[in-house]
Hints:
This protein is mainly β. It has no helices and eleven strands.
Amino acid sequence: VQLQAFGGGSVQAGGSLRLSCAFSGRTFSMYPMAWFRQAPGKEREFVAYINWGGSSTNYADSVRGRFTISRDNAQSTTYLQMNSLKPEDTAVYYCATGLKSDGGADYWGQGTLVTVSS
């Protein structure tokens, strides 16, 4: 499995960005997907999850109501729509799959930087 995340950038507080994660190497529709992030000086944290069919999602409390995870199985792509961005959302965002019960994952994208200025 190969994952490639893109779509990061710099935005002012209150703005929006959409991240994309392109999946290749296996049958995408069989894999639940997730987004994680790691802020400077902090540990990586879970952001959002979507099941294989897109019928079930879950979010960290810090982003619920502002971020939306979705997927397009025909395009083998997962998205993270981020609205009402805050400076504390500044981080490198990673897509992942092959999720583990310990919060890790077997496969990670390379990360895309999101910077939110106040």
